Amino acid sequence: MPELNHRRRMLVLAICCMSLLIVSLDNTVLNVALPSMQRELHASTAGLQWTIDAYTLVLASLLMLAGSTADRIGRKRVFMAGLVVFTIGSVLCSLAPNLESLIAFRMVQAVGGSMLNPVAMSIITNTFTEPRERARAIGVWGGVVGISMAAGPLIGGLLVDSVGWRSIFWINLPVGLVALLLTLRYVPESRAPKARRPDPVGQLLVIALLGSLTYAIIEAPHSSAPKVIAFGALALAALLSLLWYEPRRAEPLIDLRFFRSAPFSGATVVAISAFAALGGFLFLSTLYLQNVRGLTALNAGLWMLPMAALTFVSAPLSGRLVGSRGPRLSLFVAGVAMTASGVLFAAFEAETSNVTLVIGYVLFGLGFGFVNAPITNTAVSGMPRAQAGVAAAVASTSRQIGQTLGVAVIGAVLAAGVGASSYREVFVSAARPGWWIIAACGLVVLVVGALTSGRWARRTAERTAERLESAEVKEQADVLA
To answer: What is the CA angle 155-415-342, rounded to 5?
Structure first.
C-alpha cells in the first residue's frame, strides 16, 4: 500500500467512518423502532430479539471470513462489495411484508455489514502506521459510534413518528452510495503479502456454534426443555470441534495463537462483555420508555440523548488517552461507570425516577464511550500488520457476539419474568435480573481490563507477535524452497 499524505489519510479515515456510521446507526435506529414494529407486525418479545440478533448473528459468523478474504483478494474490493450488499439489504428491509421477511432481509444486510467494519479497520491500520497517530484515528473511529448513538434515537424517533418504522432503513441509502463513490475514487487497494486460505469447515463450525447457542437462549422461555437442551448440546459440540480442528490447520479461520497475547485475549473478553451490556441496555431502555412510560419514539429518543452525548464526547478522549497513556485508564473508567449504571437500575430502580434515570443513562454513556478505543487498539497493535484484517475481524466478531448474547440473554430473562402479564404491570421487577447482568458485564470490563493491561501482559503480546512473525517468515521460506 503506497504511503499517503496527511490529507489523503484523513479522507480515507472519513470514508471508513462513513461505513461504521451506517452500520452503527442502523442498530440504534432499529432499537427505537422496536415497539412500532411489534404493534404492526404482531411480534412477541422473542420476535423483537430476532430482528436484532438475526443481524448480529450473521455479522459475527462472517466477520472473520470477510477479514481474511479482504487480506487475500483486496480490502478495497471487499469493502465496496459490502457497501453494495448492505445498501440493497436496507432497501429490502424497508419493503418487508412481515416479521419473517424482515428477519431474512436483516440477514442480507448483515452479509454486507460483515465486509465493512473489519475491512475498514484493516484499511485504517495499514493507512496509519505510526502507533500514536493510529490510536488517535481509532479514537475518531470510536467517536462515530457516539455520533450514531446520538443521532440514531433522534432520527429514528422522528422518522417513526412522522413516516413509519420502514423509513429508518432509507437513511442508509445516501450514505452508502456516497461512501461507495468516494471509496472508488480515493481509497487505495491493499492486501496482505500472504493471506490465509479459505477454511470452510471452520466457518461452518462457527455458524453452528453461534446459531445454535443464540436459538437455545432466545427460545428457552417458550420452547420445550428437550429442544433447548438439544441446541445447547449442538453449540457445545461445535465449540469443542472448533477447538480441536482449528489448531491442526496450517491456515485456520481463527488463529488461536492470537489468544496467547494477554492484551488480545483481554480485549476479546472486554468486547464481549461491553457489547453484551450495550445490547441489553438498549433493549430494556427502549421497551421501558415506550411500552411502560407510553412515550412516542421521538420522546424516547430524547430521553436517551444524555447517554448518546456522553458516548460521543468520551470516545475521542479515550482514543487520546490510549495513545498517550495506554488502555488501562480508559478501561478503568469504562468498567466503573458501566457497573455503577447497572447497579443503579438493578438495586435502586433508577427507571422509576426521572433524575436517577438520567444519571443511569449518563453513567452508561460515559462507560461505553471509553471502552471502544482500547478494545480496537489493543486487538490490532500487537499483531503483525500482514494479518491486520484477521485480527480486526476477531475484535469486531467479539463485539457482535457480545451484542447477540446480550439481547438474547437479557431478552429471555425479561420474557420469562413478564410471562402473560402486561409490560406496564411487571416490567421493573422482570427487568431487574437483566440490569444485574449488565452490572456484572461492567465489572468484567473493570477486572479483565486491569489484569490484561499491565507490563507483563504487554510482554506476552510482544512474544506472541514475534512468534507469529517468525512462523510467517518460516512459511514463506518453505514456499520459496
So the answer is: 65
End-to-end CA distance of the chain: 27
- Cβ(264)–Cβ(375) under 8 Å? no
Q: 412 with 222: CB under 8 angstroms?
A: no
* Three-state secondary-structure class, residue 33: helix
Report the SS3 class of residue 195.
Answer: coil
Task: Kindly state the cell numbers that stand for 9.
Answer: 489519510
Judged by average pLDDT, the poorest of 19-28, 324-333, 362-371 is: 19-28
What letter represents residue 317's amino acid? L
pLDDT in tens, 93-151: 999 999 999 999 999 999 998 888 777 877 887 788 777 777 778 767 766 766 776 67
* All three cell numbers of 219: 427460545
pTM, two decimals, is 0.85
CA of 29: how far to CAs of 150, 167, 278, 347, in Å? 10, 10, 14, 29
Most distant CA pair in the chain: distance in Å?
A: 73
Return the closest-CA partner of residue 19 out of 144, 138, 126, 134.
Answer: 144
Task: Retrieve residue 211's grid coordinates.
Answer: 446459531
